[in-house]
Amino acid sequence: MSPPISVRALGPRIGAEVLQLDLSGRLSAQTLEALEAALVRHEALVLHVPELSPDQHLAIARHFGEPEVHTFYPNLGKGHEQITVIDSKLGDRADMWHHDESFLPSPPVVTMTHARILPPLGGDTCWISMTSAYDALSARMKQYLDGLSAWHDMNAPMTAALQHGVVTHERYVEVVAQNRRHLHPLVRVHPVTGRRTLYLSPTYVTHIDGLAPAESRAILDYLFGHCMQVEYLFKHRWTVGDMVVWDNRSVIHNAILDYAPHQRRMHRASVFARQHQGGATPQHEESACATTI
Ligand SMILES: O=C(O)CCC(=O)C(=O)O
242 in ligand 1 pocket by Cβ < 6 Å? Predict the structure, then answer.
């Protein structure tokens, strides 16, 4: 029997595309499972689906977990609150390295973003494989990180945005009042692959718990620099109708802001793990030092 989808790797560590995905009918359970397997293996998966409707977008999202209403981006409104809109015309952008909403106690496990309006040039998105970055650390550094946790704080980028005049003071106060922050282990275990992955980003992580401030800063700066090596990177140049699905447990991402004054509009859905799914039910033992996501 032929496989339900055909997947072509776009890089040795991260990134793949699905060739010829037919959306004219409902996607079969077999196809969705094959998509999930490809996602877990390649960490970021490009689909070419120009005809994808918001309902189809949500139907695919539901296979991966429980679609969320995003914490701070706007959405499509009544009936489609779980389709988030990131539109430069509305002043929204995502030009920061981050795991999606890592300031939540259980951040989304998978995100899928569909390109609706693109600038003539630019607006590419980049992903970094945090599993590959972890693998490449020295044995001594891995040992040092074991058992350490870091604070992920939604207010950190808001403060920067206020300083750069990107948000109003009213909006800043509204967001900061939510006081969303959470302590996560710096090293986590992927629940499906069992691979260890670094869990930190320069956007949301403020400091490592329990370390002297200068020590925390030095370690974070080393780790951020280490992760930013090009061999862990996958970059996608969008065409309208592309959708990229990424594994928020194992990658960070950044949408390059180089297209002003042109418009860039993306529709996205992200999902929380369901208790009965692989995403939430660890298939691998937790180690004493790293926590399964
Ligand atoms: O606009 C993009 O390409 C990425 C959007 C993003 O960062 C997000 O959905 O969290």
Answer: no
Which residues are catalytic, by number? 98, 100, 253, 268
Strand ranges across the sheet with 181-185: 181-185, 149-153, 205-208
Tell me the per-residue pLDDT of 194-229, one tens digit each, with 9 for 90 and over: 999 999 999 999 999 999 999 999 999 999 999 999
Residue pointed to by tokens 């799914």: 277
pTM greater than 0.90: yes
Ligand 1 atom 6: residue of nearest CA: 94
Number of domains in the chain: 1
44 in contact with ligand 1, CB cutoff 6 A: no
Whether 1 maps to a domain, the answer reads no
What is the domain range of residue 91? 6-292
Checking if the pLDDT of 277 tops 70, the result is: no
In a domain, 112, yes or no: yes
Which CATH number fits the domain that encloses residue 203? 3.60.130.10
